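Note to self: keep these together.
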Amino acid sequence: MQAAAAARPPGCGPAWLDDARHQALRAFMERGLPDTREELWKYTALRALQQQAYAPCDEDAASRSVADDLLRLDGCAGPRAVFVNGTFRVDLSRLDNLPEGLTLQPLSEAMQRQSEPLRFLLAARADEDEDGLTLLNRALAADGLIVRVADGVRASQPLHVVHVGASAGSAVGWHLRDLIELGEGASLAVVEHHVGDDASGHLANLVRGVTLRANAHLDWTVVQRASRNTTLLRRTDCVLHDHAELDFHALELGGKLARHELRVDLAGARARFASRGAFVLDGRQHADSEVLVTHRGRDTLSDSLWRGVAGDRARGVVHGRILVQPGADGSDGGFYNKNLLLSPTAEIDTRPALEIYADEVKANHGATVGQLDENVLFYLRSRGIPLDTARRMLVRAFCAVTLDGIQPASLREFCETLLAEQLPETEA
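Structure:
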């Protein structure tokens, strides 16, 4: 990481941007990477990351071959944006027939042609909630995706965003920054897809800002099956205005270390956020799901249900925090997390939390960590089902509830198949 920090920030022209990048890099050098002394990183250590050297970019990313089956995802036949080792690939993308009112542009292109509208995004002063990784992204992000949906536009096809980690001979560290904006009454579905065939141990550092104007609706699904050697670190900040709605589904299967810090600010009255997520881990995988919801407007609603499964020596982390700010009267928030340990050496740390500073609020949370129910296993075996098959049936059913609601149905069925393939072996 020190090598990455020592890299020269990409020069993109405007003085304000170059100055913002250098300020962020200096702040990173002072602050460093987050460590376990920070509350949000209590169970996720980055010691191995600090010792790893990463090339600042993949010089051949624009020409690397990518198998068609890596990009395929059932239910995603519409627009597609593809990044390979952090580089946008127009030849693999499908952007010719975007619906009227939906604009999509790579950040690298926007910074060269029309950088001034991005000044607020890229040159804003870092706040106290931004950790070292976010600062490093501010300094080094060379690409990303700018998505805007005009007022009243309802996109009929999901936008498929694919991040591919391809073998490059050595480990590469890339930093992407995205912006998604939906205008008043707009509607969009986004499918974020992480895949990889590399054995290089790449680092992907993604930072994303999402803004939903009044009455907008975003349906966002994450299908994460990155290479087992990849370190995938993501942070997403969402702001929802009056009556805006965000439906979020996540299936986290891949990566050596995969972390997503999802921050949702229900700023407007009657804004709504619903999330369903699951991780399934094996070997020495480590997954960290941080869901941080702030109720700021009146009569806002949040509803989250997460499931975790860990086998062998894997470790999972789930942190669900609901913060109800003063004046957010009538808020209704819930976060529930259930987990299964399939091995005595596996570990899952779950931390639901409530902070309430308003009146007339309903808020609930709950968390469990356990093993398969022996009585249910006995029942299935008494019906002639082999032990291993019975265990896999129970684990699959345990996670499948989080996939309900994924649309279209073909995408949900694809996720169910991926889930079945990923299930680790259970130990007697």
